[in-house]
Design a protein that fits this description.
4 strands; single chain; alpha+beta; Nuclear Transport Factor 2, Chain: A; 2 helices; elongated
Length: 79
């Protein structure tokens, strides 16, 4: 597995890996993470990865983090 790049966007740490002809996009926020696997053929240039991680896609990631955080908080309160 090769690290392609790491950066932070809107408080979310994003790590991009290359592995088995796929890009793995790992989004981390606090104790939570989300990983997406994308065929390398879908993104022609590594420089396009930043653009891919913006807009509606990033909004969806942030919304899932909010839902995940609420779910974790509720579970910890009831445990």
């Amino acid at each position: 597995m090769r690290v392609v790049r790491e950066f932070t966007q809107e408080g979310i740490r994003i790590s991009v890996f290359s592995w088995n002809n796929k890009y793995l996009l790992k989004f981390e926020m606090g104790p939570m993470e989300q990983t997406f696997k994308i065929p390398e053929t879908e993104i022609l240039e590594e420089s396009d990865l930043n653009d891919f991680c913006e807009g509606e896609f990033l909004k969806g990631v942030k919304l899932r983090f909010k839902e995940m955080g609420e779910s974790l908080r509720k579970q910890l309160e009831n445990f």
